[in-house]
Amino acid sequence: MSTTSCSNLTKGRQLQCDRIAGGIKNVYFGQYDDFDANAGTGEILGTGIIITGTAPDQEVTDINMANGSALRRYSLPRGESSFTETIVGSTENGTVHYTPQITIKLNHLSTADQNELKLLSTVKLVIFAELNQLKANGKNIILCMGIRNGMRLNSGTNLSGAGFGDHNGYSWTFDGMEEDVTQVVADYTTVPFDNNAFANVTVDIS
Length: 206
Hints:
Blueprint: E1 24-31, E2 49-52, E3 59-63, E4 71-75, E5 82-90, E6 95-107, H1 111-120, E7 125-134, E8 140-145, E9 151-159, E10 169-176, E11 183-184, E12 203-204
Parallel strand pairs: 4-12
Antiparallel strand pairs: 1-4, 1-7, 2-3, 5-6, 6-10, 7-8, 8-11, 9-10
């Protein structure tokens, strides 16, 4: 056994035999300030979003939001949106952090989306990505980004296209910087976020 490691590895990984689907089905935006926060630190980790378990079985098991708040669901065109998490380590400095990034593509320019863009670009967000990938139990995997420091809309394009067949709509990129990896949300029962442990978590699909 090594005497120099800070922690122990917990498991290996076999070659996976199942085929999966890539991409993102839906994305859910929550304002960081709508999640219950620690009165002293203002952080939502451990209060508004609770992670339990130890690696490799760690996941988000509890979400608590303020009365009257909601997660805003955006349904995404198939095959156009993606999640990437980059590991940023420095051997010289002895540091490591993670930069989650999600890019979503929406079709059709509209007045409503133009106005919503203004709001999205000014607030700190917690973002949930419902993947096309299914678990063995048939439930979609849902990732939670921005648990500690939030996510921000920092780049993107709104474009009309030139030809009749060109994309007309939006491409927005949200990114963050976290001390830990992006977490998976505990399995829902029938629809995302219907978990019994979640408090005041409603989904606005309008």
